[in-house]
Amino acid sequence: MTAQSVKWWSLVHKWTSLVCTLFLLMLCITGLPLIFHDEIDELFKSEASARELPADTPQAPLSRLVDAAKARYPQRYLQVLGWDDDRANVVNVFLSATPEAPPGQRFLKLSFDSRTAELIGEDTQQGGLMSAIRIFHRDMFLGLPGELFLGVMGLLFVIAIVSGIMLYAPFMRRLNFGTVRRIGASRVKWLDLHNLIGGVTLIWLLAVGVTGVINTISLPLFSAWRAEVMPELIAPHLGKPPLAKWADVDDVMAAARRALDGNTPASIIFPTVARFGTPRHFIVWTKGTTPITSRLFTPAMLDAETGQLVTARGLPWYLRALQVSRPLHFGDYGSLPLKIIWALFDLAAIVVLASGVYLWLGKRKSPRVPTRAQDGPPVVATSGIRP
Amino acid sequence: MKRERHTMDEIFRWPLLLGGLILVGLASALFGDDGWDALSWAALAIPLAVLGWKASRQPHLPGS
């Protein structure tokens, strides 16, 4: 690499890092408890499990659960029914206070035993600390603009990583891998640690960074998909009066199961004017049964009035990519040991970020060390240190 | 004090090797549970262990 290009890359590394570091530090720190959110939630909020019943106890019709939920809260609006991820034989019914259910409105969650249709829990989902941390990590309480802003910071972070790789070689030309020089200025030590930790965790940083950026555009991606499929679905119903009565939810499920045989149902979106559904359809979200396909959701759209299948097409590639990128960001796909590993990498990332700031601050205070021209590129210009 | 200049190969050998392990670790837990998870833990733990070892080494003279 020529001296000129080293200079250019160090400028890129400096400025992309400077702009994004504060936000990345925030993301790393808030991300740390989020890695363990399942365990923490369990610690503070014990949700009732379904009763012990013989294994062959049949499932109750879903309509019994739905009717029970409606009877309990007749003034509320039925939005979603979901099979609980963590609790066997538990189905949750979500009701909203208003028909549109704007983003941010919390649904009332009623948990039922799916075999006895008995109500076992009621949760207003008022959030609490973990939920606040999650929202701050996602958008800093600023909604979509905040989310997209963090996406841009993530992109800068990725550029900072790439420029860091470019600068690694000139710095390491005379050092063995992993050398940490502990004699002399502490700046030298921290520069070596910055290079060592950054160099080792690089692929993890890139994976979590890129998937984080992809996650920030999930709302626009879903909107794009909606805009693509909705007009065609809604066209036959334009101008018709609102529905007086829906098809039976169990008939709807049976039709969905026939269409997506081999998939497991995950949730049912009831006919709704909210943005995640349509007023004229049930949407049954299903997922695959293998470790990889269980991350991939396929929706079946069914006519709200007749319960007939309308379409059960797979999602477009960009939503599939989004779904697969989620576990790679959260680290929640390999049990507790993987979460602990994720946390250790996260701590390493904090050290890389903090040492980067320290090196920049130190450089501004201390005068530059003169360099020998033939000693290599003017990396020294960015670090004040001879490689 | 005069040390040899490393080639690109030498400079990137270890980071590439450890990066490859991380890649294997990230992917394998996606493919399955149990054995795949265990492979993932092992592949990801090695770079962390190397990191801990290198970062905690006692002071030494340059060039040693």
Unreliable stretches of chain B: none
Structural class of chain B: mainly alpha
Percent strand of chain B equals: under 5%
Strand content of chain A: 5-15%
Helix content of chain B: over 70%
Largest sheet geometry of chain A? 8 strands, antiparallel
Unreliable sequence segments of chain A:
369-387
Strand order of the largest sheet of chain A: 4-3-2-1-5-6-7-8
Please tally the helical runs of chain B, counting DSSP H or I stretches of 4 or more residues: 2
Query: What is the tally of helical segments of chain A?
Result: 11
Describe this structure in words.
The complex is a heterodimer of chains A (387) and B (64). With 387 residues, chain A is of the alpha+beta class. Chain A has two domains: 172 residues, no CATH class; 177 residues, no CATH class. Helices cover 52% and strands 12% of the residues of chain A. Chain A is built from eleven helices and eight strands. Chain A has an eight-stranded antiparallel beta sheet. In chain A, strand 3 and strand 4 form a beta hairpin. In chain A, helix 1 packs across helix 5 and helix 6 runs antiparallel to helix 9. The two termini of chain A are 15 Å apart. The C terminus of chain A is likely disordered. Chain B is mostly helical and 64 residues long. Chain B has one domain. Chain B contains two helices and no strands. The radius of gyration of chain B is 16 Å and the shape is elongated. The model of chain B has no long low-confidence stretch (mean pLDDT 86). Chains A and B meet through helix 5, helix 6, helix 9 and helix 10 of A and helix 1 and helix 2 of B.
